[in-house]
Structures
1.
Amino acid sequence: METASPAPRRSGPSGLALLLPFFIFFVLFWLIPLLGSLKMSVYADTLVSAPEFVGLAHYRQILNDPRFGKAFFNTARYTVAILLIILPLALVLAQAVRMSHRRFRPALTFALLLPGLAPPAVLALLFLLVFHGEQGLLNQLLIMPFGGEPINWLKDPHYILPALVLQAVWRWTGFITFFFLAGMENIPRSLYEAAHLETNHRWQVWRTITVPHLRPVLVFAAVYLMVDAFAQFSGAYVLLGGSGGTGDAGLLLISYGYQNAFTYGKFGTAAAMSALIAPWLMGIFWLCMMRTRRATA
Amino acid sequence: MHARLPKKTARYRPPSDRTSPGMTIFLSLLCLIFAYPFAWMLVSAFKTNSEIFHPLKFWPASLNATGFKMLFSEQWFPFTRVFFNSIFIAAAQAVGAVGLSLLAGYVFARHQGRRVRIFFVLALSVIVMPPPTFAVPLFSWLHQLHLLDRSAGVILPGLVSGLGVLYFTQVFRQVPDELIDSARMEGASEFQVVRLLFPLLSSAVISFGVIHFVLAWHQHLIPLLVLNSRDQQTLPVALAALYGSSLRFPYAVLMAGSVMSILPVALFFGLAYRRFKSALADVLV
């Protein structure tokens, strides 16, 4: 038995054994299907048995497919919009919650969190009714009374992507606010006291203490939102019924993948699409992780 | 949580004590906007179709609970069974994912070496490639394993949580070294050390359990593909199918079903709220 040392222990057989349960499932239910996806991507699309090996044909085809380009572009815009709206908004809201009367805080937080707790399918259903062309709540309550033309959110190609973005904002803002709140409460009071000795300016204190301390949370939130933007299926699915909406305005990468796989039966193509997207996600993820490491080291 | 400063030095009031009524009102309005559709949804469970499509009328003509009655009468889909499926599948995933991630997180936090780091990177890769991104090969693989149309087909893939590994690695990093070292000195195996530490981690375990429960509750693509029989489905899938089913069905049923789909998670979340907040704070910062 080693003598006690403050440093973490070198891995021995007992330690690695604890990794076994996780990695058994990892291999069985993640690695194997993932490799299966790669394999599928280099075989033909036929549903009949014994598909032929086609090499990189699917990949070439995808890169020349204008709809794929549209889906990629839509997803990129969608992701950026979500990040740019939710992160600052949640930061502001977290601060607002901290500045609200204590007794109201649980109720306010709950109201903000509610959209995040509802299944996205239900949110989308609500959305369908709220954002309905003429009889929808939004049009009836906020637009028509002011003399505006009712916006056909789900059919007008200009408004489909904004509708998807709004849906995501509605869903996640509360959650991210909650993360920021939790992070803010962990900032030691002594730091604020020290800052108070130098300046009375709230804004400066905010800028030099609160925000830097929230960096790990910010990075975590950004990664979380990005992964959700790429992989979230049911929002767009329920809203647009598995299609991309008018003129593919709402076509996201995951919807296009689903279409290829299940509407057109082109499994190889769908698999190739996943393989194309994965490196980007991984790259962004590791970039964020590296930056957090350096910042907190 | 923090002790109040004695009055004579308390010229300084920390940010969270400087409450402002203006902020409270502003926030309340915003929260009203966020939550209003849900209030409307709840009330709409009591309405007729024409009332639902005239959303300016908030209250129904009569508080006849037809929406809920029709839902529980199961004429549209086997509600009780479906509801139970969702609960069982989400709970099983929560418990299992916590267990697997807990053990893995301990190793990653408390062991060094290149091999450990490689495994850590592998585990985290799961975050960026969640199951919906390889749904088709997963489907055919589950088919080969005879797991289609069974709850296990959704539960087992859902036990692999990269987020969980990340979470528990952070949690174990914050456990004081002395506790672990003294346990190891007394000859405890690594597994026994984890068992020893478990009571300390109750908040973290509950918090991640709730997070994973909610994420599992929300799953759509995998249950949609894997669970085909009507009595194997999960609630969100069944509700979405209901919407597309026929032209003249009472939307009140959909509203009632949606209320029921939020109730359990809201309940769990509400019960675990305080623990959740403190555990999250410890892990994230």
2.
Amino acid sequence: MAATVTIRRHTGAGPTKTDITGINTRANAEDAHSTGGTTNPIQIPAAGTNYSYWVVTRLSADTTPSGTINNLRWYTDGTNSLGTGVACVMNTATGYTQATGTPGVSGTQLTVGNYPTLAGAPSDAFAFNSGSPKSVAGSISNPNTGDFGDYVVYQIEVGTTAGPGATGSETFTWKYDET
Amino acid sequence: MPMQWTAYYSDGGSLQQFDSGGEHGYAEIDRSRLCAFALRDFCGRLVICLHLDPGQRLIYRKRHEQRAGSERVTVYMVGWQQTIGGQNIQAVCYIFPDGAVHMAGRWREDHPLFYSIQQVACEQG
């Protein structure tokens, strides 16, 4: 049987691993998953850039594959529909670093210095589409279960020209092969 | 459309993915005796049967696409690869959930579906 694979958002010190496979998750100025939280929005800056707390996601094999899952890929629809003055950057990482910042104002910027296991400086998430996805290292084989593959970490960047309120939503896609 | 495979051997034997012994893994297929590979839906209807010539090596994958907030979509890949004149050549059928079948040759890394596989241990050597 095909393995049951979920997309998990990792938050907190534990970390807590929330199944976001069938739902949405918001990138607010807080280290928490929510589908519609408005308590800690990212403050539109008067100058410079404010950030969401970075969002850490990873695949989990809740049941073991009968063979192997590998060839992981991640991508967007290729178009930034978040609105004026709002961007999203991402990269993969080999480990988990809890997001920090000032709640309701800004997260700490996602950089290699602040997230040591990040594969490199984050880049525009929308550069990765179905024809040019981000390769994500890692695999899992029978009889193992649980988290597998590298983390995909992304962050929302808000500039001075951003408008108030919730941004448009974006869909991020994972692909993987299974034997 | 979940499907199950059957591996057919040149000596007349076969290995079904599911039998009285439970589920068999892809790695259990004896590739040295493999002459055909079939996929059937869970009603037992034959969807595709690949007949392999000597030197052709089986390619089989379930290629999953998972979007947050959506159901997982799976495309089955059944095909073969062969080294001819020092070049690796492949032909793969992609079977979609609605039953449509697309066939492609060379791997295309710029295509959302026809990109290369990563070999697993039983496919190497």
